[in-house]
Design brief:
By secondary structure, the protein is an alpha/beta fold. It has eleven helices and 13 strands. It has a single domain, classed as Alpha-Beta Barrel (TIM Barrel), CATH 3.20.20.70. The two termini are about 20 Å apart.
């Protein structure tokens, strides 16, 4: 397994990501993935009416289109989050747009919500055999603005709510121009109200989360928490990537565009978790950002997360990270 991981690390980033996931899918289809997957001690956990096999799941971005649900589920994750998906397929930003910083267990990405569209994702959700919890992360197309952008979220919501165990409204990617403006008061209120109204109309009972940026200040976080409290949203996912590349020791990457994830994000993301938990001791929280081993996983839980997600750690370490964290 170590040699395989070293091979993938030498490949271009997006190619490595694609080949690795396709390899998992092939092993799963041949019914031999269990020979390579880590043996995970299950620790069931009840949360918002859902039963999780354990508290560790995948973050959005790992499987944008739901193409690898069954293969990833067979590795022992407690839950999977697929997406971010948009109403229309889009190619994302120009390449290169994904950069691994192995020396600091970090990744910079400026993908730009590249995905095959919400209809493709729904087809995969319908045929998935995975019997665990699946969350769906939804976003807006790059060209959409103002009301059209809100309409994008509503379109995605209507199409996925029957097939998702929970839904995530992603307003926090730094790689779609002006998307983070939805953190602002008036725009956020309009978005939350629109989704709340639709959810009630559809008689939806699935939990809804808002995924936020780690780059918001304390007053903004306090306002967001209050807005979520006053809506039908269940809780928050904290956090997405940060635009602050000065968190990296290697100054080579300080001027790179895109969002930084991995170990350098850990403390900043945890600060937001702790702040939210201090504001509302009962708000359901999913923690993500910088989980690379058992210590960083447990720190997320200590800071207030009910569930924890990984992305960069899985890409850098491969499936063995599940055993390192959960066993």
């Amino acid at each position: 397994m170590k040699l395989v991981l070293q091979f993938f690390q030498k490949l271009p980033e997006e190619l490595a990501h694609s080949i690795a996931l396709k390899s998992l899918k092939i092993l799963y289809s041949l019914n031999i993935l269990s020979f390579f997957a880590p043996k995970i001690k299950q620790n069931k956990f009840q949360f918002l009416g859902m039963e999780f096999k354990n508290r560790l799941g995948t973050a959005a971005g790992l499987d944008k289109n739901g193409d690898y649900i069954d293969a990833l589920g067979a590795l022992g994750f407690g839950f999977l989050e697929v997406g971010t998906s948009t109403p229309l397929p889009q190619s994302g930003n120009a390449k290169p747009r994904l950069f691994r910083v192995f020396s600091e267990n970090a990744i910079i990405n400026r993908m730009g919500f590249n995905n095959k569209g919400i209809d493709h994702l729904v087809r995969n959700l319908k045929k998935a055999k995975y019997n665990g919890i699946i969350g769906v992360n939804i976003g807006a197309n790059k060209e959409s603005t103002d009301q059209t952008r809100i309409d994008d979220y509503l379109t995605c919501f209507k199409k996925v709510y029957k097939y998702a165990d929970y839904i995530v409204v992603n307003i926090s990617s730094p790689n779609t121009e002006n998307l983070r403006d939805l953190h602002n008061s008036d725009q956020l209120t309009q978005l939350l109200n629109s989704i709340s109204d639709l959810s009630k109309t559809l008689l939806n009972t699935k939990p809804i989360f808002l995924k936020i940026s780690p780059d918001e200040n304390e007053s903004s976080i306090r306002r967001i928490v209050k807005e979520v409290e006053d809506s039908i949203f269940s809780g928050l996912i904290a956090t997405n990537t940060t635009v602050d590349k000065t968190l990296l020791i290697d100054k080579t990457y300080h001027e790179f565009e895109g969002g930084l994830s991995g170990m350098p994000l850990h403390n900043k993301s945890n600060e937001k978790l702790e702040l939210i938990r201090a504001i509302n001791k009962d708000m359901p929280l999913i923690g993500v950002g910088g989980v690379i081993d058992n210590d960083s996983y447990n720190k997320k839980l200590k800071c207030g997360a009910d569930l924890v997600q990984i992305y960069t750690g899985f890409i850098i370490k491969g499936p063995k990270i599940l055993s390192e964290i959960l066993n």
